[in-house]
Amino acid sequence: xxxxxxxxxxxxxxxxxxxxxxxxxxxxxxxxxxxxxxxxxxxxxxxxxxxxxxxxxxxxxxxxxxxxxxxxxxxxxxxxxxxxxxxxxxxxxxxxxxxxxxxxxxxxxxxxxxxxxxxxxxxxxxxxxxxxxxxxxxxxxxxxxxxxxxxxxxxxxxxxxxxx
Length: 164
Hints:
By secondary structure, the chain is an alpha+beta fold. Residues 1-41 have low confidence and may be disordered. β1 and β2 (57-62) form a beta hairpin. The longest helix has 20 residues, at 3-22. It has helices at 3-22, 84-88; strands at residues 48-54, 57-62, 69-71, 99-100, 109-113, 119-123, 126-127, 152-155, 161-162.
């Protein structure tokens, strides 16, 4: 094959490849949807832990009035809830120092580092969680649930599980 013929063939092949790759006027976009929990989709600069009173007694809530729970399976300040557990029971996370309001005690507030590196709020040494089934302020539908192998309880201002 002569050199001019090879160059012409190479140019033709290049033109065909370019036309195949870039000649379309339509485009396709794939969108991924990830479920997020609005209670914990991003850490708040300083989470506020307050209290609410209901037929269960006085228990801990976040700044929006959503119930906060402890889990019997946790050992000390270490959270044992991750993966599917943390989707159903999202942790209360913070980027700042948690603050107390109402009957909550600032001296009982703290944080622990979760396996994903986020900072979870603790109260009297217990990591705090929401329940995804609680859709509005004051609901306690997770109270006494045995999901993920151990009971979940709302927390008293003294830092104890309210079992009732």
